[in-house]
Design goal:
single chain, mainly alpha, 6 helices, 2 strands, 8% strand
């Protein structure tokens, strides 16, 4: 994550990329364009970042706290890879209902 930030791939605060709100806002825009009355509070968002990292007071503190979760993320990545899958955000709008994975 730190390398991605250094290369300019992330938002200035990487938590903004990982907390799910960006995807939630995009599905909200698409829903409204499709004529579906949906509010942000109607979208279930699951953050990829543990709460202690989200609560970090600075980006440097965020990166320090995030390191404590490296094994968890590596386990998630490995399990996904074994199923030929990838970790990513996915929002689904189906028959006027939203699903957020």
């Amino acid at each position: 994550m730190r390398e991605a930030k250094e290369k300019g791939y992330t938002e200035p605060d990487p938590r903004d990329d990982l907390n799910g709100m960006d995807v939630a806002r995009k599905v909200l825009i698409l829903a409204r364009e499709a004529g579906i009355d949906l509010e942000l509070s109607d979208v279930d968002v699951k953050s990829l970042v543990p709460q202690d990292c989200l609560d970090a007071g600075s980006i440097d503190e965020f990166f320090m706290k995030l390191q404590a979760h490296d094994k968890t993320y590596e386990d998630l990545r490995r399990v996904a890879e074994e199923k030929n899958e990838r970790l990513r955000y996915m929002a689904v709008l189906e028959n006027g209902k939203r699903k957020f994975h």
